[in-house]
Amino acid sequence: MITGIYRESYKFFHKRVAWFAPEIIVFLMMAMGLSEGHTQPQLLIMTGFGSSEGILLTLIIVASSIFSMEFQNHAILTILYKAPGKWHVYLAKLIVTFGYNVALHLLALLVTFGLSLTPIIKPVDWSAVYQHGQPLIINLIATTGVDVLTSSLIIGFIFLTSCLINSNAVVVTLNIAVVFMGAFISYNFLLQNQRLASVFRWNPFNMVNLTKQYYNASMVQSTYLNNVQLTLGTIAYSFVLLIAGYLIFRKKRF
User: Fold this and answer.
1) d(CA 205, CA 54)
2) How far is it, in rounded angstroms, from Cα 167 to Cα 92?
3) Is the C-alpha dihedral spanning 97, 179, 193, 220 positive or negative?
4) Which of 49, 68, 115, 246 has the most beta carbons within 10 angstroms of its beta carbon?
5) Taking CA 53 as the corner, what is the angle to CA 49 and CA 56, rounded to the nearest 5 degrees?
6) Distance between CA atoms of residues 201 and 4, nearest Å
7) Which string of DSSP letters, residue by residue, matches 135-198?
8) Which residues have a Cβ under 8 Å from the Cβ of 213 and sit 6 or more positions away?
9) What is d(CA 30, CA 174) in angstroms, rounded to the nearest whole number?
10) What whole-number distance in Å separates Cα of residue 174 and Cα of residue 122?
């Protein structure tokens, strides 16, 4: 397993996009700081300068090729030949992708602290109580942790679609649609079918709202789930999607 993780890490971090894509996150964070830095500084800090969407976009761009490109060029055959089993390959890719996810969030934390010292944002008191009865710095750390769960759900979508579809372009497009349109589709469906909300509020697209609802409590009116329910749903769907992706990968013929 260690050898498999090393090989996947070597391939993953030798992709130029894995190093260039995080620049998207920094750029978007700076843009948020310039637009909201003097009007909502505390909210901006809590959300990590709105880094969530940039992280999700980066994950989709970088991680979507982890299977599909190897399916396209048949490199997966060599990888499977050297591995003890398919589950070793799948788990190694998952560990590397999750590690990249955590690294992106740590980067966002560091950039947040750095940008808070610049003139683009109004000075804030990090120890002042803001939301959830917690100091602002705890709000930031908690939001980061919550977003790790949300992005893990997206990793589940990425792994499932990558094992189903061999085209990298299709996988990227599909997962971008899930991130940026899934929550909107879920909102409109629940709005038009309020009698069915008790059941359909548990749809996977609704779980993408977890991070946003954590720092915007009013969203509970559109998700019909509280933070704990969204968290449990996100964790459950993450496991379901990853297991489904593995089952497809195990049965896939190359």
Assistant:
1) 18
2) 21
3) positive
4) 49
5) 130
6) 39
7) BHHHHHHHHHHHHHHHHHHHHHHHHHHHHH---HHHHHHHHHHHHHHHHHHHHHHHHH-GGGHH
8) 219, 220, 223, 227, 230
9) 27
10) 38
Q: What tokens does 163 get?
A: 């094992």
At residue 27's C-alpha, the angle toward residues 22 and 31, to 5°, is 150
CA gap 236, 227 in Å, rounded: 14
**Tokens, residue 71:** 């399916």
